[in-house]
Amino acid sequence: MWVNAQTMAFAIDEINRNANLLPNVTLGYTLYDNCVELGIGFRGALSLAGGQEEQIISNGTCTGNLPVLGIVGDSSSTPSIAISSVLGLYRVPIVSYFATCSCLSDHRKYPSFFRTIPSDAFQVRAIIKILKHFGWTWAGLLISDDDYGRHAARSLQFELSLSGEGCLDYIEVLPWDKDTDELRRIVNVMKKSTARVVIAFVHESHMINLMEEVNEGWTATAGVLQTPQFMPYLGGTLGIAIRRGEIPGLREFLLQIQFHYAIFAPAPAGWLEGGGALCTGQEDLENVNTEILDISNLRPEYNVYKAVYALAYSLDDMLQCNPGRGPFSRQSCATLQSLQPWQLLYYLERVNFTTPFGDQVSFDENGDVVPIYDVMNWLWLPDGSTKVQNVGEVKSSALYGEELILDEDKIFWNFISKKTSKVFCFVFSTIYLFSFILKIVCISPSSAFLIFLLLPDSLECTSCPEDFWSNPQRDHCVPKKTEFLSYHEPLGICLTATSLLGTCICAVVLGIFIYHHRTPIIRANNSELSFQVLLSLKLCFLCSLLFIGRPRLWTCQLRHAAFGISFVLCVSCILVKTMVVLAVFKASKPGGGTSLKWFGAMQQRGTVLFLTSIQAAICTTWLVSSSPTPHKNTQYQNDKIVYECAFGSTVGFAVLLGYIGILAFLSFLIAFLVRNLPDSFNEAKLITFSMLIFCAVWVAFVPVYISSPGNYADAVEVFAILASSFGLLITLFGPKCYIILLRPELNTKKAIMGHGT
């Protein structure tokens, strides 16, 4: 982090000395150490952005509480989310050099957030390209318990499911502290898993804890891990790293810094006696080989450099605005004396410049930089030392899209042959010999992506055919399980039995009505239409059977057509019955005799036929234009095939249901209006109640059907058909059967007309 801060200071010093960039403007800065604590970083950001004066006083001095025009940082995703959530409200520009969470690409939620490091979304896609290149398709996943880990894992799962290039066997969250029991549990999961690739989105310290538990090592471009005890496992590592850059003049700038040392504790026992010396602060560092002054591998530092220059170029573009041709209200320009952060934000969104190293820097609509990663390879040299070399790159461009470029001839592997070399594998077994390929892909010393691969001899991964899935041992393909609403499962049996029961009850009621067709209660309630309603209800019960069983082309085409026509026939008869009741009542009044001539037997049949033919036309149009077809659905579970009928046209199904709903609503409305007619047995009351039940069932059906997965959607539709059919059957014919069979003394003309007791 010290080098990052000094890189920022160097960049600002370099800008101030550049006569062509921000002439007559001197940039200053304030540094805050977040101490890897969310609260400290958040308070620091608020301190930077708070207490701004309304105007800059150009008096030749930089004293006082001057405004902060932009923030470089934070280095982690979670603090960046917190800071951006608040400072985004004030449109204070924030340019992070290390926060990679894909969630920060939501520019509506974080409108002032930008970054010079690619997001996890591209990081994940880059890793998937490497996995695909080497044929690694079965893996486990380790993540940190923070926004970085969770969002990276979510992106990885989404991209794998989208591409179909691989699967995850398990997902484990590494603890923040060194919880030995939890780490040992995770190691056991890895041991028992059949996956030989482990992917990790974790911080270095967390991964070191795990590697110590399994006697393995962690990798990054950090030298701390390039030690002899780790190199038997890490030699040959292939990984991605932040784009390396060169910053001319940085080493000389660092050498000018006067180092001061504070002794907080005495030297270790025997240190001075063994020839060790104490630092005085006057040492000449120019000829000392130290990591602090090593500028050959500038990665996060290069991102800091680009972030500072992005803010500087944005400010320079803003100051070059010509009055009267500006981007703000009334074509005005922003001025340095009354500059607002949101005005600088406008130019930061459009900044475009090239670094001395030759990299173009600009931001897309999400605040993300043009993504690019270096592909690195660890060499274990014969003398025991290590060397990291660049063997390719993963980048995105408008012309070629996302591409992986590898020089495989340069790649060093930790064995003679990938398929024949044998070493002991201490992670999975201490006695079993494996072909051992260790791959670790990392982003940085503090947040990294890890893959290590353990392959048995001559193991080859092949994709199973579409309708097959790998067995638990992952050594051959087996047919996927199939699922549909079957006649042989309990749910299908219950629905089938209920459908047949309803059909039988309809037949019994029809028999009762035929036998007693000369009695007053049947003759008074339009016996012909009653018979038609019973026949249509039988069809409604029977059509539900088309939804049970494995979907075929003819059942998919017939099920909704039969359902729609059967219910329209039933509801049409009920609607006509209701209209006849209304016409009879009007005819009983003085001067209303003409109303009955429009509801004779022929007119009633014609109305029912006309209303039903409209539904038949809707079904025909649907079947001809976009017919329902059988469909194999694997969205719910990859190892299972759910057979279902695809609608073909959702609009067709909606129109079919909508037409039934219109007729039912009209029946309910008319029946409700005539429910208080003076007849003792007024069928309008029964129709009102039946239509109320019918509408309630189908209104509840729509949301439940949409939210039901797989074969449960068919079960929901069958249940709705049966429930509404039983509702009509019981409410319309239950009272009549009760009078016919149990209260025959009420089945008289006097009782029906209300003249008897």
UniProtKB/TrEMBL annotation:
Its main location: membrane. CDD domains: 7tmC_V2R_pheromone (cd15283). The chain crosses the membrane at residues 423-455, 490-517, 529-549, 561-585, 606-626, 646-674, 686-706, 718-741. It is a multi-pass membrane protein. Residues 491-750 form the G-protein coupled receptors family 3 profile domain. It is found in: Cell membrane. GO terms for molecular function: G protein-coupled receptor activity. Keywords: Cell membrane, G-protein coupled receptor, Glycoprotein, Membrane, Receptor, Signal, Transducer, Transmembrane, Transmembrane helix. One of its GO terms (cellular component) is plasma membrane. This is G-protein coupled receptors family 3 profile domain-containing protein. It comes from Haplochromis burtoni.
